[in-house]
């Protein structure tokens, strides 16, 4: 039996789409489940900015896909790669069999890396926050019966702090990451560049699921309102307008 997620008979409009190459602006065609394509004109390798991993929630082969994702979404710097891999391992231990949230985290991580390249900032703070931004969601559901943002912000920092301290990271870095996690839904008490990058990365991933039926005019209005970095806004325009 062919996987329903790969069988195009079950696909919807938009599951096959084109993205302009960031180098030469040629059109690169993606299927929703492809991780990487090569530009036919200049050879640039582009990661799928709309990678659809919703099938991980039910597919019996999901673990095989998840094991491949860190290779697709791996940082260039070896020290960063080591840190991120350790954080991903810790995140997966918290989320256990929740494949959808693991996949969401990895997608946010990749978008954060893309914004980081152009905007700058402390990569350890950005990457650490991206991996751990939703780390309190399971505890929130267990304690409050809700995954509301305010509960995630309350429960996430203590879990993240324990993970980061076990990795012997500097106290200042730990505080910064925990502050981002404590505000990643409300944006009330922090306005650092690193926070803005993670905020925009999360919105890039959440936008189509949270607002699936907005007109292009309304979507542009929303993007202009919520995105905090120039790069994040440009990526949202490119992806959704």
Describe it.
With 241 residues, the protein is mainly alpha-helical. It has 2 domains: 52 residues, no CATH class; 174 residues, Hypothetical protein af1432. 57% of the residues lie in helices and 7% in strands. It has 10 helices and 4 strands, in the order ββββαααααααααα. The chain has a two-stranded antiparallel ribbon with strand order 1-2. It has a two-stranded antiparallel sheet with strand order 3-4. Strand 3 and strand 4 form a beta hairpin.
Topology, element by element:
Blueprint: E1 16-20, E2 27-31, E3 36-38, E4 45-47, H1 62-72, H2 78-95, H3 99-119, H4 123-132, H5 137-144, H6 149-166, H7 171-181, H8 193-210, H9 216-226, H10 230-240
Helix pairs in contact: 1-3, 2-3, 2-4, 3-4, 3-8, 4-7, 4-8, 5-6, 6-7, 8-10, 9-10
Judging by the overall fold, what is the CATH architecture of the largest domain? Orthogonal Bundle
Q: What is the structural class?
A: mainly alpha
The termini sit apart by 36 Å
Silhouette: globular
Assign the CATH class of the largest domain.
Mainly Alpha
Q: Provide the spatial order of strands within the biggest beta sheet.
A: 1-2
How large, in whole angstroms, is the Cα Rg? 18 Å
Sheet bearing the most strands, described? 2 strands, antiparallel
* Strand content range: 5-15%
CATH topology type of the largest domain: Hypothetical protein af1432
Order of helices and strands: EEEEHHHHHHHHHH
Keywords:
Hypothetical protein af1432, 4 strands, globular, 2 domains, two-stranded antiparallel sheet, 241 residues, mainly alpha
Summarize the model shown.
This protein is 57% helix and 7% strand. It is built from ten helices and four strands, in the order ββββαααααααααα.
